[in-house]
Amino acid sequence: MTGTHSSPQRASRERSLPPFSGERPGAHVQQIVNGVVSFGVLLSLTDLGVADHLADGPRDVAELARLCEADADPLHRILRAATSLGLLRATDQPDTYALTQEGRTLRGDLADSMLPAVMMAAEPRWLEAIRVLPETVRTGRPALPQPTYEYLADNPGTRALFHRFMRTRTAPVAAAIADLDFERVHTVVDIGGGHGTILAKILQTHPHCTGILLDRPDLVETAAEHLAALGLRDRCEVVGDDFLDYVPPGADLYLLAGVVHNWSDDDAGLILQNVRKAMEATDGPAQVWCVDLLRPTSPARFGPPHMATVLDVRMLSLFSGGHERTRAEYESLMVRNGLEITWLEQFPNDMHLMVAGLAT
Ligand SMILES: C[S@@+](CC[C@H](N)C(=O)[O-])C[C@H]1O[C@@H](n2cnc3c(N)ncnc32)[C@H](O)[C@@H]1O
Fold first, then answer.
1. What pLDDT digit, counting tens, does each position of 18-74 carry?
2. Ligand 1 centroid vs 194 CA: distance in angstroms?
3. I need a labelling partner for 225 at 20 to 30 A (CA). Which of 28, 64, 94, 353 fits?
4. Cα gap 70→65, rounded to integer Å
5. Is residue 179 part of a domain?
6. Residues 151 and 241 in one domain
7. Of the residues 152, 165, 259, which should be mutated to test ligand 1's pocket, given the most ligand atoms within 8 Å of the CB?
8. Ligand 1 contacts CB of residue 289 (under 6 A)
9. Chain centroid to CA 358: how far?
10. What is the pTM of this model?
11. Residue 100 sits in the same domain as residue 136
């Protein structure tokens, strides 16, 4: 007989598939689908400022509703759902809730608050990038009308949120960088330095250093204001330029933090070649410190995905050619552009520091 759907052989193979975590088939897929609702609960907590209102201790629903300017009944439904997600806990008092340790990270006043990460994920373009992901996969290019950094330039509110998000994400990386040995470093160029979170931490920790922050022209005014507010403006220059065209020479340290993964190998090559030219035009030895995630080489396994896997899909959805790279891919990218990695070190947030010099 031909054209049968299941031969006896195939049926026995299917029967031998192990059950998925002992749950009914489809239960795990349902859980993934439920993630959309869980995100809505998280967004409601964040947008209504629930974590901030619970910062000083438990409150009952009526009081929280008044403080959050929300309707008490729907708010209570969100609080119950947030409790089952481990963000809140119900106390012994009736209808009264407190923050869990995880829920506490949603407070807006913490240097490493998760609030901007939630608000960023809910930003219309970021949400749309996920909705149109299948189309992006078909064409290999983000199915969005404009390159992401141009969109941010045209939407100052989203740009401010993006850089607030970057500041909270980068704060632990900045601390880890500033902890390193700067004895032989005098001038640092922070390439694509954003609001200057890392440069500021370096200058605050190492008073003998001066810096140059290079970023897009639409961003540098705000970056300069941030650095001025920290009293560092007289120790750093702020340059608005395109790093695909130019990187300022004259430094002994060139920092590329969270930059390379936004770009294709060709564009990342242009940035690295500009860094190499700047290094060659500089007297004395200079180094590149590249900080990014390293994508694991081992095949993915079932479990919470590695941050590099998640961010790789984010890069795919938002940045044409942007992707997370393995260690071997970084090594080869550097070599192709006249640089070589001489040191590698694990950093916070699953990041790695890759130190590179001019290829010998
Ligand atoms: C992912 S953010 C990283 C910011 C910062 N290095 C950090 O770790 O917090 C990438 C930065 O590159 C900047 N950028 C993007 N395209 C650029 C370009 N063509 N020239 C200069 N800077 C650019 C963005 O404005 C942004 O500040």
1. 555 667 899 999 999 999 999 999 999 999 999 999 999 999 999 999 999 999 999
2. 5
3. 353
4. 5
5. yes
6. yes
7. 259
8. no
9. 28
10. 0.91
11. no
